[in-house]
Each structure stands twice: as structure tokens, then as C-alpha cells.
Amino acid sequence: MAGTASIAYQNTSTSPDWLNKGDNAWQMTSATFVGLQSMPGLVILYGSIVKKKWAVNSAFMALYAFAAVWLCWVIWAYNMSFGDRLLPFWGKARPALVQSFLVARSELPATASVHYHDGSLEVHMLRPFYPAATMVYFQCMFASITIVILAGSLLGRMNIKAWMAFVPLWITFSYTVCAFSLWGGGFLFMWGVIDYSGGYVIHLSSGIAGITAAYWVGPRSAADKERFPPNNILLVLAGAGLLWLGWSGFNGGAPYSANIDSSMAVLNTHICASTSLLIWTLLDVFFFGKPSVIGAVQGMITSLVCITPGAGLVQCWAAVVMGILSGSIPWYTMMVLHKKWSFMQRIDDTLGVFHTHAVAGFLGGATTGLFAEPTLCSLFLSIPDSGGAVYGGDGGSQFGKQIAGAVFVIAWNVVITSIICILISIVLPLRMADEQLLIGDDAVHGEEAYAIWADGELSDITHYDESTHNGVAVGVTQNI
């Protein structure tokens, strides 16, 4: 047995010629950065930005989704997104549970060898210099954060059992379609629609699906809609900080190697984020008289979403322009237009995911069609003559392609998310019972976020003995 193992080792090096250890290390690091954005990033942010009685439920929705996507991904969803073509917008479902580690670079899976066809022209995307296992890991983190973002529209009222059913269905029938269409060699990629790191696949999808699901689930209780203060703003900032820094891997890992586009993506990400945060804060000061921490976080998120479709494909000056736009247009849709549009008023999007992700994602995709720099595009896509309208790219057709790609993503998510919600509602109620809506975490999970005496949602503070002047409620023991 020992001799056999020795021979096998001599014949199959653990570092084959095609393996780039630097690229592999960067890709796995980037994937971990993206994973940290969800767990603990959005788990902390969701658990802190909601009313105290929903802290546990909101954090758990994110935690469950992060775990559930893993099994869906490796059993069927990865190859539906990046495998062999079944339909022009969908790959064939099959497991990714058996990995071939020591293969020649020419034998890497279809995820690494997508072709672009332009008449008789065939152009190969650059294949990554690392095992398929790294790709499965990286792309799973993208799938996970998409459904976690979507959860932000549904906090504070969705039946947790309905959510548990929703996650695998949505990943299977919505996410995989958008991922294959734009990244895995589907018809939008073939046509030349650019989505560098998920502005459409992740953010536009989650924003549109989130507000669609919010329509079907219904609103929070009247009391929660009227007053829904964050329970811990400092922890909101901690979660937001993990999002911001984690975006270095989110956009930096998109080229599948540590190259020029990767460096540009990381730099542009932070330039755009800083610009947008400042613009949103200035607008808050100008119109409301004071800066808002929550507003600053929203401005940060909209910029990170906006820069994502073209992070490694635009020059730094364009990142500043995109930051100005992402700090002002979503601010207007959230703070002004939403309050005037009666249709939007009827839909309870808890964290405004439509504005921070759908609006910002669409804006980022459209501006990529304007500002994508041809040289950077050629490094990333290997498609001749691709580039934004400001560079004279094919008469501005790239901008039109970006709009058309967004329309497909929007339409697909509205239809599929609606079908999923309707089917689930036949078996399970989408919305919590009124009693659970009144009580919150203690009724749904039997747990509360903070064990603070006399401060729970069920604490009886009506029987107060003022004569004692010691803050002791009658009938309550002080076993703390």
C-alpha cells in the first residue's frame, strides 16, 4: 500500500504545471472575504438594524440561508449555473461533490472555458489556473450572499418555515438562471452583456425578488411599520464594516486571478464607496439638518452595489462619478420617490433592498455600458471592440445591451419569485400569525436577543410600585 501511494505521488505532482498557487490563494481568500460578508457581516447587521424583538429572527434568517445554499450548490445548483448547457439560459443539474484535483489545464470544467461567438469569431475567456474546487467555493459564496440580501426585504414578518422552503427553491429556479445567462456561457454572455462581479446576477436579482416576495408575504404589523428603531447602531456599523472590506474579495476575485483587473476592481470599490457615503451624508444634512449613521451605511451599500458590474473595467474617475450617482439617485428613490409613489407604499420592503440593491444594481449596469474602458474589457472578457459608450464602443450598443440584460433579470425574478411564493402559500402561510407578530423572537424561536430584566417585549411594566422608588415591578422576582 505504501509503495503504491509513493508511485502515485511521483506520477501526479501535487503542484501540476498549470496550477498558479498565487491565483489559487487569492481566489480562496476572496471567497472567504465574500463569505464573511454574509456570516457574520449581514447576520450582525440584520440582527442589529431591526427592532429588538426581531433581532434573533432576522439574524437566523441570514444564518439559515447561508447554510442551506451550501448543500443546494454542491448537489445540483453549481452546474446549473456553470455547467453544460441545457437551455440558452440554464445549465444541466448534476452534483459537484466529486472533484478531479490533478487535471491538465485543458481539462478544466466548462466554468473555465466559456466561449463567446460573434458570427464566425470564437474568443476564449481566460481559464483560471486552479482546481474546480476553488471555483465551486468562490461561486457558492456569491450564491449565499444573494439570498441573504433578499432576506432584508422580508424581516419582521415572514414565517420562518416558509423561508426555509423559499431559499432552495429560489436558488434553484432564479439564481441559477441569471448566473448561467450572464456568467456561465448563456445567451446574455454570448450577446456581450457585461456583469463583472454580480451587479445583475446578485444585486438586481435580490432587490427585485425581495420586493416581489415582500408583496406576496404582506407587511409587518402596524406597530412595527410605524416604529422600527435599530436595537444597536454600533453593531450595525460593525456589520457594515465587514461588508465594505469584504467587498475587496467580492470584486477583487471576479477575474479569477490576481491580475490588473483585480487590482483596479479593489481600488475602484473603495473610491466609489467613500464618494457615495459622503454624498448620501451631505444630502441628509442639507435636507434633514443632521447626518445619519444609518443613512451613511445605506450610501456605502448603494455604492458597493453600483460599482460591482464594472469594478475592474472602469477608470478611477468613472468610479468617482458612479459614487456620486449611487449616493444621490438611490437616496432620491428611497427618501423622496418611495414616499410619493402609492404603489411602493403598499409594499413593505423592510430594509429598502429595492433601493439599495435593485436601483443601485441597475444604475451600475447602465453606467458600465457608458464607462467600461476597452483595454480593461479586453483583459477581462477577451472580446474585441467591447467598451462603453464614452469610448465610442460600437456606437454605444453596449449601453443598450446592458439595459436589455437588466430587463431580462427583472422580468425573470418577478415571475419566478411570484410563482415560488404562490406555491409555498398553498402549503404554508407566508406570513407569521398575528400573535407571533406581536411578541417577536420569543414566540417564534423561544429566544430573545438580550437578557435584560424588565426590558423584554412581554415584560409587565404596568404594575409598578412607585412607593418603593427602586424600580422593582410587583410580582417580578429579581433573579438576574
List keywords for this structure.
mainly alpha; 480 residues; 62% helix; 3% strand; two-stranded antiparallel ribbon; 4 strands; two-stranded antiparallel sheet; Ammonium transporter fold
The low-pLDDT segments are 1-12, 102-125, 459-480
β-sheet strand percentage: under 5%
Helix amount: 55-70%
CATH topology: Ammonium transporter fold
Q: In whole angstroms, how far apart are the ends?
A: 62 Å
Within CATH, the superfamily carries the name Ammonium transporter AmtB like domains
**Which sequence of strands runs across the widest sheet?**
1-2
The SS-based structural class is mainly alpha
What would the principal axes of the Cα set say about the shape?
A: globular
GO molecular function: ammonium channel activity
Subcellular location: Cell membrane; Membrane
Pfam family, one: Ammonium_transp
Protein name: Ammonium transporter
Describe the model.
The chain has 480 residues and is an all-alpha fold. It has one domain: Ammonium transporter fold (Orthogonal Bundle), CATH 1.10.3430. The chain contains 18 helices and four strands. It has helices at residues 2-11, 21-49, 55-82, 132-151, 160-182, 187-191, 199-217, 222-226, 233-252, 260-288, 293-307, 316-340, 342-345, 353-371, 374-381, 397-427, 434-439, 441-444; strands spanning 85-87, 90-91, 115-118, 121-124. Helix 7 runs antiparallel to helix 14 and helix 14 runs antiparallel to helix 16. The N and C termini lie far apart (62 Å). It is found in: Cell membrane; Membrane. Keywords: Ammonia transport, Membrane, Transmembrane, Transmembrane helix, Transport.
